[in-house]
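To assess whether ligand presence alters the predicted conformation, the chain was also submitted together with fe (ii) ion. Input:
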Amino acid sequence: MKASSLTDTRYLPGLDIDKRTGWPDELRVLLDKFPRDTWRSRPSPVTEFWLDKHDWFRHQCSALKSAGDDYREGRSDAMVFASWLAPRLQNFLAHLHGHHQIEDHHYFPAFRAAEERLAPGFDALAADHELLHEGISDVVASVNAFFESLRKENAADATRHAADRYLACSETTFRRLLRHLSDEEDLIIPVMLDRG
Ligand SMILES: [Fe+2]
Ligand SMILES: [Fe+2]
């Protein structure tokens, strides 16, 4: 999707990820038939795998946020935080990129074709991915600036500033991702269950 279509899609009324609190009634037609609290009682390897993958992303967001809080509140120093952060953030972003690739190229087209009534929801989810990828670019740039600052002498203020920038970027992305994961499940899991 190109940037121009992102603008068109992101501002569909009520579907902007930063304002969304769930789907409107017209996109809940299958969710009302298959409520969230019944999903795990309906054995399906595909839904189980996908929900477990989303839970892994939630767990990673929580761990990354918690480590950031420890640094911000003085329970770890910049070097300790950076050493812990580098491999985990890289792994998290690589998995997220791969997951979105599969959804954009396989899941979304297939489920959109299967349930055209939910098309605005799939447009919103695709727009979420675009926005999340923009946010990830900011996360990567800011964390690289943080790591770079650690290689300089007498750069404590620059390190703190760069770390604060990374923390702000990452927390925005984590917040949006958590919203996205929940809404994506509410749209797609009922389609999977409805179609067997
Ligand atoms: Fe997604
Ligand atoms: Fe997903």
